[in-house]
Write a structure and sequence with these properties.
- With about 900 residues, the chain is an alpha+beta fold.
- The chain has 5 domains: about 170 residues, Multidrug efflux transporter AcrB transmembrane fold (Up-down Bundle); about 150 residues, no CATH class; about 190 residues, Multidrug efflux transporter AcrB transmembrane fold; about 120 residues, no CATH class; about 140 residues, Jelly Rolls (Sandwich), CATH 2.60.120.
- About 60% of the residues lie in helices and about 10% in strands.
- It has 32 helices and 16 strands.
- The strands form 4 sheets. Strands 11, 12, 13, 14, 15 and 16 form a 6-stranded antiparallel beta sheet that branches. The chain has a 4-stranded antiparallel beta sheet with strand order 2-5-1-6, sandwiched between helices. The chain has a 4-stranded antiparallel beta sheet with strand order 8-9-7-10, sandwiched between helices.
- Helix 24 runs antiparallel to helix 25.
- It is elongated and about 140 Å long.
- About 50% of the residues are buried.
- About 0% of the residues have low confidence.
Length: about 900
């Protein structure tokens, strides 16, 4: 592995050439990235409900239609009717338009001497007010027309455009929606026009997504430059980390094109997220580079030392981030799954670039003459502030823990107020043209959110039986009474229309006999009945036009219909509401809850990784707590602010935990290093806050600002995603800076890379008596639980008369025990020797000096070490205590024997 990391150092130009070639390759394809506003990306790929909806569309046609609303003082005025007719004819000429239904094209049924006939209700446009009044009376008397093609007050008319079956991509490619808007714009006033419908919403959504993509990418790039400039204030400190995120974005976009993926509602925020999240590794690398760039060193040595120190923490931090995004890969929603998969790929590429491009560029550049103020020093105000925060948190740890507990309690209370709600029409801003046009049409005509209530008899002619039609009639009346329902239409309306044409004095809408039903259906044209009756009459469809767009309202409607149908229909008949609105809301709510309930899986994986990384279940839990708290606060904020849990906001927690834990890992790593250097828990925390805390601050600044950029989106859920995610990053920073130090006040940190890189020489368990009976990795754990010190020749380890309750274990080098008066060498000490065991146990003054004879490294053990070791590794502690007892016993035996050999009254000297 070390050889792989050394390649950019040995062959920097070759490394850069390979990375440049790959970037050019992916960049060639990235230019062709497309936008897809289809809602299909938000539906489960293998959902049985979706398959059922597809079969319903095959029987009754697609429910995705466009509606043009025409508003005037009187839509039956000859001039207004002429405009409606002109617009209807021009719309019918657009490619892929199957049918246009309006006041001037709608069919009517009449009875004459020659029998029943069906044709256009209006054979020619009215030219006089009298003809217009006659048409008005005929239209308003027909319940099928009301709210479909004309409002009851005659001041609004609807032109319904039915399309041929085609993909959303083809609909956008043909430019159908812009053509409709252009035709509408050609007509003069004073009439007012509005356009709505799922296809038009998708087309507008595509344009808004393209706008968002351009805005997000440009502003995120600018943000990264600003943050890096604030952090380092040098060209290399800005351009080198910037290159890594650009590589990540280019490769990811190119891969999306190669795999045939477009930017959709799920991947809309992918680019800004890659930029602001990916910059973290660059900041840590450059920060460490400047810390290592000391005078007299070569660039090769500085970069090698930098990579050796940060590559494992950066890799593990990236792994935790990948876990957060990786959980999204297993969702059934394609858009979210693609977001997770491409995020994992993009972050992996950015880390790869950080480990290849960054060291290759730094090796080729001369060392900087001046070190940026980002380094920890007394003159750095930010470092000073962070050190003060660390000191406060350590000295007032109980108050900090209590404050966090109160915040968590309030947040948990707020979580109970969260609503699960997905409103796809609410994706757009209330003032957007989509929302205003839709509200205008829905308010004057019928709602634009269609739902199909399908009655399935599972056999030919099953739904045209008289008993089923009677139950269907009751169901239709029940549906019309439901909140948000504006209009219903079924085969019953066609039966009633024909029956009244045949029998003007008919008192009921339902036929009196089965034979009458069969006779009327024989007279009807198949095309007229197709939207409400399958060709074999095994299925019937009640078309429900509603204003329902929120998932809670749709859920209530669906539940009510199913409950009513269960009581009123024969057992052989099934009733099932379906439609795009039903599917989208059901799948979105299921996904939202699935994301939240699936968090425990991510937490378990992260806990296992942290426990392995810090070689302790307790430390793993402590490292996880500061990253759980922001998520709890996030959901609490959502509950208190009224922001619903939906397909966008549900993803924040998984992402936030995976991202925020990055800073925790680096902070704990810095704390561990400082503790080895200082030996003081408090000083180590303060030092870590002044160094790693700065990187955490700038990363949190970049992350929060990057998420806040997303607030500029044209889509409200994306805006809420950015707002909440940005707030979560700020909360995570505050928790990191205050709670983490408070949790560390009594905790000794050992990292996996400490264990891997610690060198104790050959067979420490044989050469060092204190480690007898331990395995090599257990001996390393003991060393890492203590405090390592280095001393040069001539330095004192202890002095005679000192009161130091510590024990010293020599790991390398040698020392001498000297008397306090004549400096006579009493004893020479080498590897494995133990010094000061009586001082540790009895806490007595030292009886002799211990001086370094050759540069050495020794382990310092005290009472706190013994307590920590006993709590965290009790089995290892038992072996160490046994060895310590044996050492004391041997030392006592040797001392007793030495005293027995000495003449009476001779001076005594020891090592304590």
């Amino acid at each position: 592995m070390s050889r792989l990391f050394a390649i950019p150092l040995r062959a920097p130009r070759l490394t850069l050439a390979v990375m440049l070639a790959l970037t050019a390759f992916f960049g060639f394809f990235a230019r062709a990235i497309r936008v897809d506003s289809s809602m299909d990306d938000l539906l489960p790929a293998n959902d049985p409900d979706k398959h059922y909806h597809d079969s319903v569309k095959a029987d009754f046609g697609d429910d995705e239609i466009a509606v043009i609303g025409v508003f005037a003082d009187d839509v039956f005025a000859p001039t207004t009717l002429a405009k409606i007719d002109t617009l209807s004819q021009r719309l019918a000429q657009i490619e892929a338009v199957r049918e246009v239904v309006s006041l001037t094209t709608v069919k009517g049924i009449t009875m004459s001497d020659s029998g029943l006939s069906a044709g256009r209700l209006m054979s020619q446009l009215p030219r006089t007010p009298a003809q217009a009044a006659e048409l008005r009376a005929a239209v308003l008397a027909n319940p099928l027309y009301l709210k479909n093609i004309v409002s009851p007050d005659g001041r609004a008319a609807g032109i319904t455009v039915v399309f041929e079956s085609m993909t959303d991509e083809l609909f956008l490619a043909r430019g159908i929606e812009p053509q409709m808007r252009a035709l509408r714009a050609e007509l003069p006033g004073p009439e007012q026009f509005a356009l709505t419908g799922i296809p038009t919403i998708k087309a507008n959504g595509a344009r808004l997504m393209e706008s968002d993509t351009r805005t997000f990418t440009a502003l995120s790039l600018l943000l990264v430059v600003v943050v890096l400039s604030l952090a380092f204030r040098t060209p290399r400190g800005v351009l080198i980390p910037l290159s890594t995120v650009i590589i990540g974005v280019v490769w990811t976009s190119g891969l999306m094109v190669l795999l045939g993926t477009s930017i959709n509602m799920g991947t809309l925020v992918l680019n800004p997220l890659l930029m602001v999240i990916g910059i973290a590794s660059g900041i840590h690398l450059i920060s460490e580079y400047y810390a290592e760039a000391q005078p007299g060193r070569t660039a090769q040595v500085v970069v090698a030392q930098t990579m050796a120190r940060v590559r494992l923490p950066v890799a593990i931090a990236a792994a935790t981030t990948l876990i957060g995004f990786g959980t999204l890969v297993f969702t059934p929603i394609r858009g979210v799954r693609e977001f997770g998969a491409y995020s994992v790929f993009g972050i992996t590429v950015i880390v790869l670039a950080a480990f290849t491009v960054v060291p290759a560029l730094l090796v080729l550049l001369p060392l900087p003459r001046a070190i940026p103020a980002h380094r920890e020093d007394d003159g750095n105000r930010l470092a000073s502030l962070l050190r003060r925060i660390g000191a406060f948190s350590v000295r007032h740890s109980r108050a900090v823990l209590l404050a966090n507990a109160i915040v968590i309690g309030i947040s948990l209370w707020g979580i109970g107020r969260i609503r699960v709600e997905t409103d796809y029409l609410g994706f757009f801003h209330p003032q957007s043209r989509i929302r205003t046009d839709n509200a205008l049409i829905a308010g004057r005509l019928a709602g634009t959110q269609p739902i199909s209530v399908v009655i399935d008899g599972h056999a030919p002619q099953a739904v045209t039986r008289l008993d089923v039609l009677a139950a269907m009639h009751e169901l239709q009346q029940f549906i019309e009474r439901q909140p948000g329902v504006d209009k219903t239409m079924s085969v019953l309306d066609y039966l009633a229309l024909v029956r009244r044409a045949l029998q003007a004095d008919a008192l009921t809408a339902l036929p009196d006999s089965q034979s009458e039903v069969d006779q009327i259906l024989m007279l009807a044209e198949a095309d007229d009945l197709r939207p409400v009756l399958s060709s074999d009459a095994s299925r019937a469809n009640i078309i429900v036009r509603t204003k329902l767009s929120g998932s809670a309202d749709v859920r209530e409607f669906v539940a009510g219909v199913r409950a009513f149908a269960a009581e009123h229909f024969p057992g052989r008949i099934t009733v099932r509401p379906t439609g795009t609105a039903v599917l989208l809301n059901q799948s979105a709510d299921a996904l939202a809850w699935g994301q939240v309930t699936g968090l425990w899986q991510e937490l378990v994986v992260l806990f296992a990784l942290l426990a392995l990384m810090f070689l302790s279940l307790r430390v793993g839990l402590l490292a996880l707590i500061p990253n759980i708290v922001p998520t709890v606060v996030l959901f609490g904020l959502m509950g208190w602010s009224g922001i619903s849990l939906n397909i966008s906001t549900s993803m924040i927690a998984a992402i936030a935990i995976g991202v925020a834990i990055d800073d925790t890992i680096h902070l704990l790593s810095a704390f561990n290093e400082a503790l080895r250097r200082t030996g003081s828990q408090e000083q180590a925390i303060i030092a870590a806050m002044g160094s790693a805390g700065q990187a955490a601050f700038f990363i949190a600044l970049a992350l929060s600002a990057g998420f806040f950029i997303v607030c500029l989106s044209n889509f409200q859920p994306v805006m809420h995603f950015g707002l909440l995610a940005g707030a979560t990053m700020i909360i995570a920073l505050a928790v990191e800076l205050f709670l983490t130090p408070a949790l560390l006040t009594t905790t000794k940190i050992i990292t996996l890379w400490d264990l891997l890189f610690l060198k104790l020489g050959p067979e420490p368990q044989r050469q060092i008596p204190l480690f007898a009976g331990l395995r090599p990795f257990q001996a390393k754990l003991v060393v890492l639980m203590g405090h390592l010190e280095s001393a040069a020749r001539g330095a004192f380890i202890t002095r005679r008369g000192e009161l130091k309750p510590e024990l010293y274990v020599l790991l390398s080098g040698c020392a001498e025990v000297r008397s306090g008066n004549d400096r006579r060498v009493i004893r020479s000490l080498g590897r494995g020797e133990v010094i000061g065991e009586m001082g540790l146990v009895r806490q007595r003054p030292r009886s002799a000096d211990v001086v370094v004879a050759d540069d050495l490294e020794y382990l310092v053990l005290d009472q706190r070490f013994l307590q920590r070791l006993r709590r965290r590794y009790p089995r290892i502690a038992a072996t160490v205590f046994f060895n310590l007892t044996r050492i004391l016993s041997d030392r006592l035996e040797n001392t007793t024997a030495a005293l027995a050999r000495r003449p009476a009254g001779s001076a005594r000297a020891g090592t304590d």
